[in-house]
Amino acid sequence: MAALGWLTPRRRPATARSVLAGEAAAEAARKSALPEEAEESAAAPEEAGEPAFPVAGDTRAAAFFDLDNTVMQGAAIFHFGRGLYKRKFFQRRELTRFAWQQAWFRLAGVEDPEHMQDARDSALSIVKGHRVSELMSIGEEIYDEYMADRIWPGTRALAQAHLDAGQKVWLVTAAPVETATIIARRLGLTGALGTVAESVDGVYTGRLVGEPLHGPAKAEAVRALAAAEGLDLERCAAYSDSHNDIPMLSLVGHPYAVNPDAKLRKHARSLDWRLRDYRTGRKAAKVGIPAAAGVGALAGGTAAAVALHRRRR
């Protein structure tokens, strides 16, 4: 996998690195996409009072789904980290380093470039020298152990409606593209856009291609994939829980806020975007708080590591 996790999101416009990350993600997604099915079936209608969407047979439309807290409860890399730790993939000192780095980001609320680079380098160092095939094989096992039961049924139904309409459905996530691809395949989706880690001859080098696929980089990935696939973004849909994905949501003609954090909910209401919330009561509060705090994949992996470390003690 590309890394244990990714850094706290940065609020800034697209840069050359985010464009590079987006284009790399789009290329990787197309290479790993499932073959198109010949069958098409009618799309399920939306809630009462809303026009039928997606439009059956509109193949210039597609759907883009954020992963963490949108399709899956929690962060995918959180669950992946649990699986790797169970397999003694990491040393305790590496886990401790991740925990302190992420704690600093969350508590300080600022993003020192040197601190961020150090955290990113340490994450990538864990997979450096490992074969892509090794991590893919482990990822398949971990999906069955920790992820399969954490898919939101409501969001899964939304994705299925697009598939039933004959449209492609892509995951778009800061998680490593290999993890995202496994999840997409298990859910029967078309493919996934994720963070791309450089590999040579099937072995990870410890470097990223561009930067983590987050915020503006997600939008660039969707833009690049749409151009390559001949999609009309105005006819496409995007789904996310986080305000960090507003750049991606703003690209499409049909943006949805799913299990939204407070900032995204406010933004969505101001623009009359559609809202879907599959959480209830305390569960909604528990899931919403880390989303609003911008907790990414690194936070999930760190939390898993700390929790497991405490249990051992």
From TrEMBL:
Residue spans crossing the bilayer: 287-308
Compositionally biased tracts (Low complexity): 41-53
Gene Ontology molecular-function annotations: hydrolase activity; metal ion binding
SUPFAM superfamilies per record: HAD-like (SSF56784)
Native organism: Streptomyces sp. NBC_01401
Protein keywords: Hydrolase, Magnesium, Membrane, Metal-binding, Transmembrane, Transmembrane helix
Record's protein name: HAD-IB family hydrolase
Family stated for the protein in its record: Belongs to the HAD-like hydrolase superfamily. SerB family.
Region annotation (Disordered) ranges: 28-53
